[in-house]
Amino acid sequence: MSDLGDMRASDAEREQAVERLREASVEGRLTLAELTERTEAAYLARTHAELAQITADLPGGAPAPRPQPVKTPGKVKTWVVAVMGDAKRNGTWRIDQEIAAVSVMGDVTLDLRQAEVRTREVEITATCVMGDVKIIVPDGVDVELSGVTIMGDKKVQVAEAPAGQNAPVVRVKAFVLMGDVKIIGDSLADPIKRGWFAWSEWWWDRRKEVRQQFRADLRQTIDGGRQAHREIMQAHRDATREFRHVQREARRGEQEFRRQFTRDDREARRESRREGRDTWGDLRRGDDPSS
After folding, report:
1. How does pLDDT run across 49-68, given as a tens digit for each residue?
2. Torsion of Cα atoms, 185 then 191 then 192 then 198, to 10°
3. Which of the 8 DSSP states describes residue 49?
4. 8 A C-beta contact, residue 115 and residue 137
């Protein structure tokens, strides 16, 4: 009989492992980068043993559900402000409330990768006036960016998790006036030191397989789109040629009709003049034209 650890994991068991990882993050046991990596690994795990490796260094048993904090209009925020200067938050730091980043002719950098996130989601309000706000997150999180931009720019450059995964969420509400707000992932930032665990090797291999498959599917989709575009353009050219051919035939028919009409009109006029001359001649001779 095979070992129970080799038994295939179900989707429900993966979701339970992800929820356990979220609880560990709220308790301060995992940073945002570790939570993101382990969440992705949990969805890629195939057996009970692999799921157990991901949570082996966490307390066993599901913690009691804790009440969700009630959001009040006057809740406390963590402020990061730069006025004609620079402000950075990186390394190990704690996030247990909403973050307010303000940049006035300055630069604000928030590196969330090694932060201990004590909330279910990370909420950031970024206000930027003639400055820059850069937020660095681990690749694999879900980023929701909203707000208003006037003569500025706000954008997300993060490799987000596949659809259907319960990945960590970072919500950013940006108000930009002649400035920039950017949310970037690991691939566009300086690397950080990461731990190596028993599950890291197979997670890394499967992550590469998933990304290679994604790139292959994307390439196939692009090739299919290009082929469809070529077929559409060829059909358009064929339809244009057919339309021009029909137009030329119609023009030729119209010209032939006009020429035939002109010939018939001229012949009718000549016949009418001939009859008129014959009638006039008969009248001058005194003959009755009707006889």
Report:
1. 888 888 888 886 444 444 45
2. 90
3. H
4. no
pLDDT, tens only, 215-240: 888 888 898 999 999 999 999 999 99
Q: Which helix (H) or strand (E) holds 266?
A: helix 200-284
Rounded CA separation 176/168 (Å): 25
Q: How far is CA 2 from its chain centroid? A: 44
Q: What are phi and psi of 239, to 5 degrees?
A: -65, -35
d(CA 181, CA 110): 11
CB-based contact 115:94 (threshold 8 Å): yes
Strands 180-184 and 153-157: parallel
Q: Which helix (H) or strand (E) holds 238?
A: helix 200-284
Using only the alpha carbons of the chain, give its radius of gyration: 39
Task: Examine the pLDDT at 2 and tell me if it is beyond 70.
Answer: no
Distance, C-alpha 12 to centroid of its chain: 28
